[in-house]
Amino acid sequence: MQTWRYDARIADIQEDHRKAEMQRAADLVTAVEEARAIEQLRYAQLQEAEREARTREQAQRIAADRARAVSDSLRDNLSALKAGLPGLTETAVRERASTLTGLLGDCSNRYQRMAETAQRHASDVTLLLDSWPR
Prior knowledge:
2 helices
């Protein structure tokens, strides 16, 4: 007589089991979709970082080429100045020495600021590397 109750209870348990299995499958699908979304986001970030790195590298190459051209021009000008010194008056030599002293001071200041900036960047990179999860 109680068989029908047991059968009903077994059916309820089987239904609960089927629902739990379906929920686990749905949760798994959701987790896989979330993982794919995260992977796609990270890949997009990587692509963007690589693009920005190539752009920076190209800009640095252009800046280095310009600096090299200016340096070459300055070297040529200094060579011409040195060759022309014997024919200059004492006043002209003093004026040029004063100008060159000012130019050297400006260059020294700029190099010093550049070195400080480079040191800060190097420190930032070290901080990022040291704090990256392992």
